[in-house]
Design goal:
Keywords: DNA-binding, Transcription, Transcription regulation. GO terms for molecular function: DNA binding; DNA-binding transcription factor activity. It holds the Pfam family LysR_substrate. Belongs to the LysR transcriptional regulatory family. This is LysR family transcriptional regulator. Helix 1 packs across helix 3, helix 1 packs across helix 4 and helix 5 packs across helix 10. Strands 3, 4, 5, 6, 7, 8, 9, 10, 11, 12 and 13 form an 11-stranded mixed beta sheet that branches. A two-stranded antiparallel sheet has the order 1-2. The chain is 43% helix and 26% strand. The protein contains 10 helices and 13 strands. The protein is α/β, with parallel strands linked by helices. The protein starts with a helix and ends with a helix. The chain is elongated, with a radius of gyration of 27 Å. The chain folds into 3 domains: 85 residues, Orthogonal Bundle (Arc Repressor Mutant, subunit A), CATH 1.10.10.10; 88 residues, D-Maltodextrin-Binding Protein, domain 2; 105 residues, 3-Layer(aba) Sandwich (D-Maltodextrin-Binding Protein, domain 2), CATH 3.40.190.10.
């Protein structure tokens, strides 16, 4: 039945028995015989023939959709099995967002290494744009990063978590008695960006046009440098609850940020290229999701 399913899919997608025969590299009569045999085996009519054309019956439409999914699963299973046997993917390349914190990511690394000791791990970190370019240039297999663009069909986009945005400020700059702060009220205080020189323009664009920051920007190369600027009351840093834990609470404090009274949040995903999917990549992604599921 497997070959008959493939032939049936070809008939539906090519719209003629002749082109389906050419695709399958068999005769047109062989295509007709396979379809007839399939209908006899199932005991239902899949195609309603009208002269030289045909249309799918309701049962035929269901069988077509399910057959496509089954064939895809079988092809994926074949690829994964061969990959595991040959250990062709001997190194998995992954990256994480440096400003978020690495706890869950490192837990996924530990679980993966324990399950697959024969597979090496190359780990990169950086800001959003750095990770995005590594992924699009095929220099990493998977990245854990925040969402800044519309989700693309070119990638698998596995949702992991969502976190409120916080403004980290020097204790000297904190508004008295406030439990949250609106982004507009920070306009006179510089906004600190953690970004490499090559990606500062991208970070400024994101903060200005997506987050609505109206402050001028100053840049830091590392979180440590950004913390120095914060405690010196040189500006504020936008981060999430996890990122704010990396700052000294004696010298700085984080307040939830709102925009026109609404909480500001940021979503985080595991991203990997659809053309570079496979058993180890998807396993690591699921391990990462499990870590966030336990938070």
């Amino acid at each position: 039945m497997f070959q008959q399913m493939i032939t049936f899919i070809a008939v539906v997608e090519e719209h003629t028995f002749l082109r389906a025969a050419e695709q399958r590299n068999i005769s047109q009569s062989a295509v007709s015989q396979q379809i007839q045999a399939l209908e006899r085996k199932l005991g239902v009519q899949l195609l309603r023939r009208t002269g030289r054309s045909f249309e799918l019956t309701e049962a035929g439409e269901h069988f077509y959709q399910r057959s496509k999914a089954i064939i895809q699963e079988v092809n994926q299973l074949t690829t994964e099995t061969v990959q595991i046997a040959r250990q062709s993917h001997s190194t998995l390349r992954v990256g994480y967002l440096q400003t978020f914190g690495s706890t869950e990511f490192l837990q996924a690394v530990s679980a993966f290494s324990q399950a697959f000791p024969q597979i090496g791990l190359d780990i990169a970190h950086g800001d959003h744009e750095h990770l995005y370019r590594l992924l699009t240039d095929d220099q990493v297999d998977l990245v854990f990063s925040d969402q800044r663009r519309a989700l693309s069909g070119n990638f698998h986009n596995l949702y992991l978590t969502e976190s409120r945005l916080l403004a980290v400020l020097s204790t000297r700059a904190l508004p008295q008695g406030e439990r949250h702060i609106d982004i507009a009220s920070l306009s006179k205080l510089p906004c600190i960006l953690v970004a490499s020189k090559d990606h500062r323009e991208d970070e400024e664009d994101y903060h200005r046009n997506t987050l609505g920051v109206r402050s001028r920007f100053i840049c830091a190369n590392t979180l440590e440098e950004a913390e120095m600027l914060v405690v010196a009351n040189k500006g504020f840093l936008l981060t999430d609850a996890r990122g704010s834990q990396q700052f000294s609470r004696d010298l700085s404090q984080a307040l939830p940020v709102t925009h026109r009274g609404q909480p500001m949040t940021r979503k985080y995903y595991a991203f990997w290229n659809r053309d570079n999917s496979g058993y180890y990549v998807e396993t690591f992604a699921q391990l990462l999701k499990q870590q966030f599921g336990s938070v």
